[in-house]
Amino acid sequence: MAKKSAAIGIVSAAAAGAGAAYLVRKVKGSEGPEAGKKKERKEKDRAGTEPGAGYRNTELGKHEKNRKGIYYSSGNYEAFARPEKPEGVEEKNAYIVGSGLAALAAACFLVRDGQMPGEQIHILEAMDIAGGACDGIFDPSRGYIMRGGREMEDHFECLWDLFRSIPSLEDPELSVLDEFYRLNKHDPNYSLCRATKDRGKDAHTDGRFNLSQKGCMEIMKLFLTEDEDLYDKTIEDVFDEEVFDSTFWLYWRTMFAFENWHSALEMKLYFQRFIHHIAGLPDFSALKFTRYNQYESLILPMQRYLEQAGVDFQFHTEVTNVVFEIKEGKKRATAIECRVKGVEKGILLTEKDLVFVTNGSCTEGTIYGDQEHAPNGDAQVRTSGCWNLWKNIARQDPAFGRPEKFCSDIGKTNWESATITTLDDRILPYITNICKRDPQTGKVVTGGIVSCVDSNWLLSWTINRQGQFKDQDPGKVCVWVYGLFTDVPGNYVKKPMKACTGKEITQEWLYHLGVPADQIPDLAENSAVCVPTMMPYITAFFMPRTKGDRPEVIPEGCTNFAFLGQFADTPRDTVFTTEYSVRTAMEAVYGLLGIDRGVPEVWGSVYDIRELLKSSICLMDGKSPLEIRLPGPLNGLKKPVLHFIKGTVIEKVLRDYDVLRDGMI
């Protein structure tokens, strides 16, 4: 897949010019010893000894299942099909560890596509509530709590495939997808102020990336680099200040929560995955949001669907290990070890039973503070032991991954969020002044995060459609706040964010809203309540990695076992998305149960020359890449090449996407 994207990217780079120098260096440097070895390996992999030997043009077998028991499809032919009932499904039991989005999605696919009886599906959850990281609750002792939010887009193919079948809780005649689609058609999302500085003043990023030519070339070089060359590398290994000082990096790091020390490979995968949304990055017009918090909008409808199907939810059940029999290259899960309300228990598995495990969690070990207490010391910590579970499984075979790569350095994987709830209308004018919208209309408010560019914590905040909770007091507004840098003193509160109470976090936020300094203490005390949450592993999946660190969804040799969620590995898609959770669930269920229906492939914008051309224009803030002066003799080649394409479909495409302009030929 990576090689295909590189080939398409080369076409775009040639048109764009920004990556041309890199391409020349790449070609010149490809004749070294290592390149020769790669070429030799590729030649050995080819079938036949002569070019075209034994070749026959045919589409027979194009949908044959891979070694994991699945195949990928695109278009609507298979997207709307209902698969046949898998043979012997009535004789199987499925045990799903965890009840987050991936786990619930797996259960839904077992019911819908696997046609497994609901009572034979068992969801084992350590907590007393489903949802995992997709939360949203009202705690009477603290207030409203949302640890995070979910940004979604059109091409979450597996997610929408799932939710087209889940009935809405608001109107059973509609699906969750119907409800979501209509909402975002009638009230489209976009931001009117992406960033502020100087205490609430518009930073006037004005939809521009402000990347230099060198910065564009660094991004293009990363785009074209093979995955293998990025193993265990960080973003700061591939970018320098040309990118880090740009508005592009402000947009990117605050929207996706990337840090300089995170994985260069994940950065590349994100860029390729969302290349079709580069134009919508500055104002969030690429994004779509649910009406309510993710728990009420996504999790509860799934839970209702599963309960009505008879699925067995077992809360207060902490799974501590899955025991395997490993022989002759086959790996079979034979027992589940768990703790039910503190009592040790074992579940023996037959050869027909299936096991699905959510390995790792970005919200594991969340520390909760409140208005008067920081999220440390004696604050509440809720754990499910999922990291230890993965470690216990991984000890049994290398194919089960290396969890330590992700959970061993919380100094690099943590950040803190907070839910601020306004109690009256005194703060609202400062919000309206920035986002240019009334937060109490029930429609889009900020349209995404507003980042405070001069905040020591790199504070960002957002207000989604209110009320964010179905039972929310209409006079209150829920604000979600997060800071990427939790260990440095704030601008107003001279303490690190992680040491601040809810009240102090509100004070820092009010400072960046532009509230007069003499009013800040009173408003933070009497006009708002804040619940901070420190998450030690929130960006653990962005840690630099190499092949095998994340186990495959169905590890090599496994006959009845699969991993789910953000720390399982599936090609081309990107972690920290709802789509990734649902995709791993679909692949796991289809593979283990032998469902004869294609898994929708990851949206192919990275192979679409139109999207690549548009993105090159966007990255250069509207300037045509053909206007860039190329190094050495390359610049002199532009005119002859452009003359050669005159009157062809290539000229038309370049003109259609504003790369080729009048006077260039």
Helix content range? 25-40%
Question: How much is the radius of gyration in Å?
Answer: 26 Å
Report the β-strand fraction as a percent range.
5-15%
Residue windows where pLDDT falls under 50 for at least 5 positions: 1-31, 41-48
Distance between the termini: 35 Å
Largest beta-sheet details: 9 strands, mixed
Class computed from helices, strands and strand pairing:
alpha/beta
Strands side by side in the biggest sheet: 7-6-16-17-18-15-19-13-14
Mean pLDDT: 91
> What's the overall geometry?
globular
Number of strands: 21
Number of helices: 21
Give an overview in words.
It is a single chain. This protein has 665 residues and is an alpha/beta fold. 31% of the residues lie in helices and 15% in strands. It is built from 21 helices and 21 strands. The chain has a 9-stranded mixed sheet with strand order 7-6-16-17-18-15-19-13-14. It has a 5-stranded parallel sheet with strand order 8-3-2-12-20, covered by helices on one side. Strands 9-10-11 form a 3-stranded antiparallel sheet. The chain is globular. The protein starts with a helix and ends in a 9-residue tail after the last helix. The relative contact order is 0.17. The model is unreliable at 1-31 and 41-48 (pLDDT under 50).
